[in-house]
Amino acid sequence: MINMKNKTLLTVLILMLAQAAFGQGLVQKRLDSIMQLAHARGVFNGNVMLSQKGKIIYERSFGYADGSKTKLLISAYQFDDRERPFTLPG
Fold first, then answer.
1. Residue 17 near residue 11, CB atoms below 8 Å
2. Is residue 74 one of the residues assigned to a domain?
């Protein structure tokens, strides 16, 4: 089970990385490395989409959609308004 400290740390790392990497062209590689590590350690399972000025710059799914780990998780959501910020559940 993910504790609140790990969730908070992961969220802060993602936000710091995204802010620092915009304009450097390395955001995809850096974010992918962090998310793969978080998934490997068992602290993240889900979808990630990062956009800048309405353009998707990173999108990937990590983990499984079911408890028996037989169905891979895919990003099946269409976001019409990419300018709207959304929050992570606490």
1. no
2. no
Cβ–Cβ contacts within 10 Å for residue 35, how many?
21
Do β-strands 55-62 and 46-52 pair in parallel, antiparallel, or remain unpaired? antiparallel
Is 43 among the domain residues? yes
Domains in the chain, number: 1
pLDDT given for residue 90 in this prediction: 45
**Tell me: the pLDDT tens digits for 21-55?**
555 567 788 888 888 988 888 888 888 888 777 78
pTM reported for the whole predicted model: 0.53
| Three-state SS annotation for the chain | CCCHHHHHHHHHHHHHHHHHHCCCCCHHHHHHHHHHHHHHCCCCCEEEEEEECCEEEEEEEECECCCCCCCECCCCCCCCCCCCCCCCCC
